Amino acid sequence: MADQEVATDGERRDYPTKWYRSSLFNITILGLCNFSAPGIWGAMNSLGAGGSQSPNLVNAGNSLTFCLMVVSCYFSSVLVRYIGIKGALIFGTLGYAPYAADKALYCNNQFGTEWFIYLGSALCGISAGVFWTAEAAIAIAYPEPWNKGKALGYWLTYSRFGQILGGAINLGLNADRDEAGQVSHTVYLVFIALQCIGPFVAFFLNSPSKVQRKDGKKVNLAILQNPWAEIKATTKLFFTKRFLLILLWIGQSVFAEAVYFTYLALWFTVRARALGSFLSGIVAVIIGNLLGTWLDRASVSLRTRSRSAFWVIAVLQGAWWIWATILVTEFRSSQPTYDWTSPGFGRAFPVFIFLTTGFQMNYLFLYFIIGNLADDESDVVRYAALLRGTESAWQAISYGITSVTLFAEVGAVYWNFALWAAAIWPAWLVLREFGNNGETSIEQSGNEKIGSPVDSVTNVTPQGDKIIVGGYR
């Protein structure tokens, strides 16, 4: 995320920063927390429904997790008021290790104890909603305006590192297993250790007031209202026209996770699942960072960047859902189990890679959208809470229905396909406003151009410094 010393609009980008106070350092810490907590959680899911032979139980547990996350996300901004954004991040990391370590997935895999699945899922859900809100707000607010897209791609890379690591470990331990079934229980011991370090890593995050940015602007993510006023403000924000219009787009984006992980668990051998986890993580990292770089291209108007990214993602998603729909309809009757040596593997396997990549692209693009909707620093936290809570609600539904065999095999793919189709027009009504105020590229105009009120908002400090809260230039 290299910076120029002075932008073409005359804004300084070379204010001195200490490396341990810089936005890059803080996004790196955030990424490491993401790797240790949801990244490793994703690694377990990337083994194919948590490595379980049957995805039904694990999907039911995941549904419970996301149901509780809806609640914890909703009240996260209240918690931020009392313990700050850094405290919320630390708190949020605490519940992930029990998901694996409190005899949840590990004991079920090793001893068949099912009730621990639900205990671990509940503990994870209570803390994870707070973590998701805190990390989203930090990722949006900490980076300089010209680095937001690259910072988002860099941060989300760490989540995929968890999936890559999970696939690599699983592949190494199970490379000779060309049949369906559970993964080796030794894998969980590694995951437990990695998830336990999350809270300690979070301590190294700088509080917003201590962050030093290259543009010299301060970061402020404090919540000052009383709890009841904060709850009302968050609720009011949810019912705004712009947020309601993107609900379906959020849904089609995150609904897919349960669908493609269940697809992997149902139709592939253990070592093929490991290969899928490993390769899809690498591809998703590459494509996600390329998208982030594109969204930061100041030489291209915000209008062009936002519209082109939206339509590329929408069209690709449609193609992949058509492919997946054809395959699962066929698999429903043929009930195959594909190994990498099986005939037809090259036809069935790539769609998992593409759907995982699409999830990464959608995820990053959601932050781009939300970052351009916030009106002030408090709204960054509230929008982050609403985004993550909405994601959790959709994922609770997706993991819940994929715990039913019919939906696991075909129904969830059909639902996601329909969601994609229904989401395009409402989301477009919001996206088409980005940069739609006669904005020209910075290089062409030589003047600072900022998007419409939908795109970004500026605050002015008593000293006259201008702060770009969420928007892109």
TrEMBL record:
Membrane topology: Multi-pass membrane protein
Principal localisation: membrane
Domain of life, source organism: Eukaryota
SUPFAM superfamilies referenced in this protein's UniProt entry, alphabetically: MFS general substrate transporter
Keywords: Membrane, Transmembrane, Transmembrane helix
UniProt cross-references to InterPro entries, sorted A to Z: Ion_channel_UNC-93 (IPR010291), MFS_trans_sf (IPR036259), UNC-93-like_regulator (IPR051617)
Subcellular location(s) of the protein: Membrane
Membrane-spanning residues: 23-44, 56-75, 82-101, 116-142, 154-173, 185-205, 243-268, 274-296, 308-328, 348-370, 414-431
GO cellular component, one term: membrane
Keyword Transmembrane helix (UniProt): yes
UniProt name for this protein: MFS general substrate transporter
Organism (species): Dothidotthia symphoricarpi CBS 119687
